[in-house]
Design a protein that fits this description.
single chain; alpha/beta; Aminopeptidase; 5-stranded mixed β-sheet; globular
């Protein structure tokens, strides 16, 4: 695969991707209030030429490319957490900011950047004829912040869509993480300004003893 060709193709869509992301940032889209965000994604999917686009009864949007072969999914949840106390922001979270390295704003990383990358990633695969023998589904899923996993339970059980392989576009600092090995919910009380934090958990087994390690990010 010629990665330089893929990169060159992506650079051609920089302005379109930037506008798409800035448009999504401007739309408040907390869990159960994602309709405007989903409709904006549908507009972009139509623009770049997805073969089929569906919005299911739960509100998830599914865009398909290709007609036969194993199904590869690219998923991004499109709901965001609230903005909290606006006095703690140094910029308007729904206007955001942009510089040579990054675009900031409500949900830009978690996870609107993921849906932008997925939509245009599928477009680039179509441009370069890389979908032969495969099907692609790009999913913009809802209610992840409040009910993590409910959206995919619906897609599998009700929409009857079950990809053979899934790429989850959660932010990973540019790294590729392999596998999804379950989950645990832990309550952590901290003092300070409001933020959206992650608790990273590591598990190791040494001489049949389970060791747990936590890092608040």
């Amino acid at each position: 695969m010629k990665f330089d060709l893929i990169k060159k193709q992506a650079e051609q869509y920089e302005k379109e991707m930037t506008k798409f992301l800035r448009d999504l940032i401007a739309l408040p889209g907390e869990s159960c209030h994602e309709e405007a965000t989903v409709l904006r994604i549908k507009e972009e999917m139509e623009k770049v030429g997805f073969d089929k686009i569906e919005i299911d009864p739960q509100g998830n949007i599914l865009g398909f490319m290709g007609t036969d072969g194993p199904l590869i999914g690219y998923d991004a949840h499109v709901d965001t957490v609230g903005v909290g106390n606006l006095d703690n922001w140094t910029f308007d979270p729904f206007i955001g900011y942009e510089n040579d390295l990054e675009i900031g704003g409500r949900g830009s990383s978690d996870q609107l950047g993921g849906i932008v990358s997925s939509v245009y990633g599928a477009k680039i695969m179509k441009d370069l004829d890389l979908i032969k023998g495969y099907r692609i589904v790009v999913t913009g899923t809802v209610q992840e912040e409040d009910c993590d996993g409910l959206c995919w339970q619906y897609i599998i059980n009700e929409d009857k869509v079950r990809p053979d392989f899934v790429v989850i576009t959660e932010p990973t600092n540019g790294n590729i993480y392999r596998g999804q090995r379950g989950r645990m919910e832990i309550r952590v009380d901290v003092a300070g300004v409001s933020c959206h934090g992650y608790l990273q958990m590591g598990i190791s087994i040494v001489d049949n003893v389970v060791e747990w390690k936590y890092v608040l990010m």
